[in-house]
Amino acid sequence: MGKLVSKIPEGPLAQKWTRYKASVKLVNPANKKKIEIIVVGTGLSGAGAASALGELGYSVKNFCYQDSPRRAHSVAAQGGINAAKNYQNDGDSTFRLFYDMIKGGDYRAREANVYRAAEVSNQVIDHFTALGVPFARDYGGTLDTRSFGGVQVSRTFYAKGQTGQQCLLGCYSSLNRQIKKGNVKMYPRREMLDLIVIDGKARGIITRNLITGEMERHGAHAVVLATGGYGTIYYLSTLAVNSNASAAWKAHKKGAFFANPSFVQIHPTCVPQLNEFQSKLTLMSESLRNDGRVWVPKTKKDKRPANEIPEEERDYFLERRYPAFGNLVPRDVASRAAKERCDAGYGVGETGLSVNLDFRDAINKQGKKAIENKYGNLFEMYKTITGSDPYEEPMRIYPAGHYTMGGLWVDYELMTTIPGLYAVGEANFSDHGANRLGASSLMQAAGDGYFVLPNTISNYLADEIRVPRITTDTPEFEAAEKAAVEKLTRLLSVKGKQTAASFHKRLGKIMWDYAGMTRNEAGLMKALELIRELRTEFWKDLNIPGTIGELNMELEKAGRVSDYFELAELLITDALNRKESCGAHFREEYQTPDGEALRNDEEFAYVAAWEYAGEGKPHILHKEDLRFEEVEMKVRSYK
Amino acid sequence: MKLTLKIWRQKNAKAKGIFATYKMEDVSHEMSFLEMLDALNKNLVGEDKDPVAFDHDCREGICGSCGMYINGHPHGPVPAVTTCHLSMRYFSDGDTIWIEPWRAKPFPVIKDLIVDRSAFDKIQIAGGFISVNAGAAPEANSILAEKKKSDKAFDSSICIGCGACVAACKNASAMLFVSAKISQFALLPQGRIEAKERVRAMVEKMDELGFGNCSNTGACEAECPKQIKLTNISRLNREYYKAY
To answer: Is A381 on the interface with B (CB under 8 A)?
Structure first.
């Protein structure tokens, strides 16, 4: 168990970060230029890190699989970004933001990291504003905020329903400035296929040029993974369809522990699946729950149009079950409550797998114009997809896979268990515990990239200044490139009948049915069996036309799906190990009589960090005990 | 419904392209346009044929990856939607659909429907930013901005960089794209400080990369999936004159 050293600084919680920064080792400006850093990913954390490291004078190489860094999936975040500014004079503070996150995460996150995320949130808002992100404003010219699920203050900064896009374009602009200055070199349309570890330290990556198919070697003094989450393991999710976990998984297989993989957030407000060909589920921002009321009919299988169901025959089940928070309960709670009603036969729509999100009362009270100002683009998007007008009749929503709290294990400095390999943003596990609160992913990703990593990475690099430029003609690069080519060749040589996507779809269905919103031991065991069968079939009946040396999207997909088969097993192993319900991880065996999650702090107040032990061998569990010094672990109640 | 697809197939940048014909049976009205192409590709892969290459990612109209000419319109015949959000509801049984890549000199074809839009990144690199380092920003509310102008800045900033404006323009002009970024920053106090340098650098780069001039036909505005307005181009011109 001695392998997990979290490096939490001494001292009171509120002073840890300040003290850390005051004592951290620095790299002299003249030496920075000679130090190369690879950043994989260009979302808020990746582009943020690449920009900030470039600004400091390091030589940065930034990679993304898309044709442009501006397309990273942070772009799709909708509702907002939190900060503890207390502009509303409603009692907010760094401590309260920290407390809401710790509680919202069901006491499964590391106190010191969460406090720091809350602390740097204000700097993030200052920086984005200075970069020209057009956040919503009040008539006096100051920034506006709104409230968001799971909290009782108004701390969410927003740009209509496109906050992610605006923040991402802000990051993209700062990245462009560094590209122009020559501090960052951008490599788009590249997929990371392996991590290079030399003498125990991360020293580079192998990539494939997705246009030419050429393999490339890139060396560096340190590597930062900003590659997002693994929500597409469910096939249908709110993520971009090409989002994948392959970079993180390759790093895991090279020695980076993977933490809490079973902690996956299922978002309550998504457009339900409409047909069997569907390739993704579209998120409808959580901010809609500020004004929309969630309900189902009080009668089972009531097929009347929503508007014809009178008030007294409607069950506003969130308001009924959780009077204190009502429609604003956190995502995990709202998702399970919707599933409970649908499973009990009260769901609406053709499939019975959706609930109403109704704006009638809000429109009557505030007027259509006010609602349009807040949610106009979301209402339009909903209408485009479904053909139904939310101004006239309730939206229909259902939960979908959305965000993965689990990820690569990192210490306080955001370093993984491989020295010199860092993970930032959704790719790491650190700040959201077992459930993430709304509007905190943009906050954490930008905080990690712009303000945390640039401060912590120098502590490592200060000892690397004598290391010359990493050359790529070494046996380690040679072997990794050879292995990557072999894997792709193996995929190409299966020559069966089925597409990678069709396997992905079936894997996703297994994961959704047995390892989705609720889990139980029998189901998880069943899923393991089904996944192994499907994986065997994959390696026998996959078909990929074309070759390795050209643009080959089927090959890209197949590589990602093959990694998902392995990650899926680990996710389930973790879910089996955690014999408690906490946050988004709901084990049916562990619940209170009224159906709420039943945590077991005695046995499970730890981070489960899994070590890869080799092909076909069971993963090794390492536990990082979570100690709460400032907060008391309480039953998480929103009633 | 049954459809006939005429799709531009081009092996690589140097190869000569042709329209290939594909028959689709059982297309559902509930599919999105890209899901219909997914179904075609599934069939092609099943026959061990090369699937049609196209860019796509978020499939919710915000990343700007997807984009193709559909029956003579960028992103298809429905206004204000991206290709990924275009529903097959808008097509009928027996239709023939013509599908082509963006056609513009600064966007060379990479393969089939994929084009190289890196010219857009180059324009942004030239000046599409406000020069401020992480840590240097003042307290957010110390920068006050008029709400009306800030809302207008937002309306300009929602460009997704898909390239439909260039593809729609007979001159392959990037004026709408460039003017959106210029406007966003010109309308905000924090963007005014280096407004002159920005507009000079971005326009110079745009010209250098071979984009054409604007002749006010308005095709870009008509086809923009995010409905970016032509008034941005007027503002760009005004900013440009002020910069010299």
So the answer is: yes
The answer, as to whether pTM is greater than 0.95, is yes
CA dist A212 → A39, A208, A488, B110 (Å)? 22, 8, 15, 10
N- to C-terminal Cα separation, chain A: 39
Spell out which residues of chain A touch residue B153, defining contact as CB-CB under 8 Å: 132, 134
Domain with CATH 3.90.700.10 in chain A: 268-400
The proportion of chain A whose per-residue pLDDT surpasses 90, expressed as a percent, equals 91
Task: Dump pLDDT digits (tens) for A318-360.
Answer: 999 999 999 999 899 999 999 999 999 999 998 899 999 999 9
Q: How many CB atoms lie within 10 A of CB A1?
A: 9
pLDDT of residue A509: 95
Candidate from B80, B110, B130 with C-beta closest to A132? B130
Q: Give the A:B interface size as CB pairs under 8 Å.
A: 216
pLDDT-derived band at B69 (thresholds 50, 70, 90) equals very high
The predicted complex's ipTM stands at: 0.98
The shortest C-alpha distance from A297 to chain B (Å) reads 26
Give the angle subtended at the CA of A400 by the CAs of B39 and A582, to the nearest 5°.
Answer: 145
Q: What is the mean pLDDT of chain A?
A: 96
The yes/no answer on whether domain A475-601 falls in CATH 2.170.150.70 is no
Q: Please classify residue A485 by burial: count the beta carbons closer than 10 Å to its beta carbon, then call 0-12 exposed, 13-18 middle and 19+ buried.
A: middle
Identity of residue A33: K
The tens digit of pLDDT for each residue in A182-210 reads 999 999 999 999 999 999 999 999 999 99
CATH architecture of A268-400: Alpha-Beta Complex (3.90)
Q: How confident is the model at residue A431 (pLDDT cuts 50, 70, 90)?
A: very high
CA distances in angstroms from B78 to A251, B28, B88, B124, B159, listed in the order given:
44, 18, 11, 29, 18
Is A543 an interface residue toward B (CB < 8 Å)?
yes
Q: Classify domain A13-266+403-461 by CATH architecture.
A: 3-Layer(bba) Sandwich (3.50)
SS3 B102: coil
What sign for the dihedral angle of Cα A327, A331, A333, A334? positive
In whole angstroms, how far apart are CA A516 and each of A401, A584, A606? 8, 9, 22
What topology is assigned to B3-111 in CATH? Ubiquitin-like (UB roll) (3.10.20)
Decide if pLDDT at A635 tops 90: no
Kindly report, residue by residue over A231-278, the tens digit of the pLDDT.
999 999 999 999 999 999 999 999 999 999 999 999 999 999 988 889
Q: For chain B, give every domain's residue range.
A: 3-111, 117-242
- The percent helix, strand, coil of chain B (3-state, each to 5) is 40, 15, 50
For residue B96, what are the β-bridge partners? B4
Q: DSSP assignment of A230-290, as one string? A: -GGGGSSBSS-TT---HHHHHHHHTT--EE-TT-EEEEEEEPPP-STT-----B--GGGGG
Chain A CB within 8 Å of residue B184 CB: yes
Please list every residue in chain B whose beta carbon sits closer than 8 Å to the beta carbon of residue A75. 58, 62-63
Interface check A73 vs B, CB under 8 A: yes
- Quick check: A554 contacting B, CB < 8 Å? yes
Backbone angles phi, psi at B2, to 5 degrees: -100, 140
Residues 6+ apart with CB under 8 A from A553: B51, B53
* CATH, range B117-242: 1.10.1060.10
Span A544-566, mean pLDDT?
98
Out of A166, A277, A498, whose CB is closest to B31?
Answer: A277
The minimal CB distance from A142 to the residues B50, B110, B141 is found for B141
Helix (H/G/I), strand (E/B), else coil: B46: helix
What beta strand segments (E) does A75-183 contain? 81-82, 156-157
Which class for A593: exposed (0-12), middle (13-18), buried (19 or more C-beta within 10 A)? exposed
